[in-house]
Amino acid sequence: MKEFFLGIDVGSVSTNIVLIDKEGEVFYSAYTRTNGQPLESVKKGIKELHKAFPKDGRIRGVGSTGSGRQLIGTMVGADVIKNEITAHATATAHVVPDVKTIFEIGGQDSKIIIIENQMVVDFAMNTVCAAGTGSFLDHQSERLGIPIEEFGDLALTAERDVRIAGRCTVFAESDMIAKQQFGFSKAEIIKGLCEALVRNYINNLGRGKKLEAPFVFQGGVAANKGIKSAFEKEINHEVIIPKHHNIMGAIGAAILAREYVEESNCPTKFRGFEATDLSFEPSAFECGGCSNKCEVIKVEMEKQVVAMWGDRCGKWANSL
Amino acid sequence: MKVSFPYMGTTIVYKKLLELLGHEVIMPPKPSQRTINLGVKYSPEFACFPLKVIMGSYIEALEAGAEVLVTSGGHGPCRAGFYEQVHRRILEEKGHTVDFIVFNSMFRDFKQFYSNIKKLKDKNSWLKVIKSLWLVYLMINKLDILEKEVQRIRAYEVKRGETTKVWESIQKDFDTVRNKVQVMAAYDKGRKRLADIKTYEVKEDRKLRIGIVGEIYVVMEASINMKMEELLGNMGAEVERSQYLSQWVAYNALPSFINKTHEVDIIKAGEPFIPINIGGHAKQTVGHIADYGERGFDGVIHLMPFGCLPELVSQSIIPKISQQYDIPVLTLSIDEQTGTANNLTRVEAFIDLIRGKRMKKIS
Ligand code: SF4
Ligand code: SF4
């Protein structure tokens, strides 16, 4: 019998599902768009996984992470529900054991994690400024009429350097137009944009931190060669991109589940593949208990309330 | 006269003092989303966050019928010194007539202090005033002792939320006291009730201690800082704040020859990092981090109101202190969006970091 650990990373943009074996090797992975419907995308993802799941396989533990970790963790019956920082760091330290600095850039957010002797010692997250995330590039690629997949390769063909003001998306846009009028090629502009994003990222998240090699770059944006080379230019050092760079969060969640199950020796809380067919209804209501008027999330499974959160006073969460 | 005051921390003590002097006290409601919305709506956009919340708090107090607002002034070059003028203006523009009584440290302007006291004294005898002050001071001290206990026990409670419930009911008990004997009775009862809370046995080397530092309002007022103390407590960490009312009173109202407060040492500890007075609580912030570092705390949460200049300065120095004392620090900016999942994620990750540091691994 083969034993597996399931990791689910539910973000606002993508939902990732991975299966790792006891050695931590990735056995299966799937990357789908969340499209604002985390429950649906996870249900779908788990059904797909079920089809590919070996007959003699057994799930021994489940971990969830990402902004939807609570909801999804409740639905599938996760043993570990972890924040993204810890999940990412766990996965990276697994593939690059001596890593010191992790750059992570996703579609809607970005993080930096500083590691010493396999321990997280500092981190920062950017969740407000689009100029340091993948959506900045998406936006500009649309403007330039160049598919984002070609962005990276094109950037590498640039002959000259051009500096684009990248403090914020609005400025970058007007500056980009100005630079185009000066006669810079699209490739050069794109290279400039990549460098602007990296500068922004480092200024925003790297401030006051000691950035030391080995550097690992992961997240959806790590597929972009232009950004990778912009990073290498900015920090003057090689940057490692792990093979599974865009599903590191899910891998981390799976590893954490494995550690938890092995240490505690508890049987998994996984509800099984069939559980995706159960009725699972999250709903929100406004509590009128005081003038906070909290939006409380209530999750029902087969008409049974299984979780509640969002209340500031804890009167609902503690009532279960 | 009907008096009110900004809502911050254990408010029953201000209420008690005013009541003892025979005033009718209008309790401002605990800051809620409505308070914040009101405050944000009527304050200048670039004002710091505490100014906005207190603005909302005043509006709600006036709605409830308050005529006079008693508040403390701020020192030095940051905006705290203008609070009262800004608030007064905005309230006047909104069509409210209101009187302010602003207390500053009595050593900076004794005349003002004296005339304020006289206003509040009303027809009471001086003896009565002094007795009332003394009783309230005793109350503050006792409440702070109990609160420190609450902050410790909460990390280990078996039934989640129990400690907070007990603490709330202790405050209610204190709300009814009229004299020293009753204060002591409420205190003893409180101690006993806290001791009765069922807790988990946790080994000494697995205990986590976290300090909370930053600007006084966001540190003291739980309703706007994501209930940071409860949050950390629920994650299993003991908590200590940089500010307690008893310290504030001792530092600002006791003459220096008996004023051997911890705060004096703290400010000294902060001096190497911020040598001059830049206002707010920046010096205390860095001093407290150094102090927590020296006392072997596991980490520090630094709360910084959005738009606060002094804390911005301390934030920029924190990496240096953090390194020197080998103590992790997480800075959170507090504004009307604070309750968001992202900040929760940061706090969770921070606790993992601290635990990992203890156990020499990531999780
Ligand atoms: S959940 Fe609690 S804090 Fe929120 S509105 Fe209801 S009573 Fe108020
Ligand atoms: S310390 Fe900061 S938050 Fe407080 S008044 Fe000064 S600037 Fe505003």
TrEMBL record, chain A:
It holds the Pfam family BcrAD_BadFG. The keyword Metal-binding applies. CDD domains: ASKHA_NBD_O66634-like_rpt2. Keywords: Iron, Iron-sulfur, Metal-binding. Residues 6-257 form the ATPase BadF/BadG/BcrA/BcrD type domain. Its cofactor is [4Fe-4S] cluster. The keyword Zinc does not apply. One of its GO terms (molecular function) is metal ion binding. PANTHER family: ACTIVATOR OF 2-HYDROXYACYL-COA-HYDRATASE, BIFUNCTIONAL PROTEIN [INCLUDES 2-HYDROXYACYL-COA DEHYDRATASE (N-TER) AND ITS ACTIVATOR DOMAIN (C_TERM)-RELATED. This is 2-hydroxyglutaryl-CoA dehydratase. The lineage of its organism: Bacteria, Bacillati, Bacillota, Clostridia, Peptostreptococcales.
TrEMBL record, chain B:
Transmembrane segments: none annotated. The lineage of its organism: Bacteria, Bacillati, Bacillota, Clostridia, Peptostreptococcales. It comes from the Bacteria. It comes from Alkaliphilus serpentinus. Gene3D superfamilies: 3.40.50.11900. This is DUF2229 domain-containing protein. Pfam families: HGD-D.
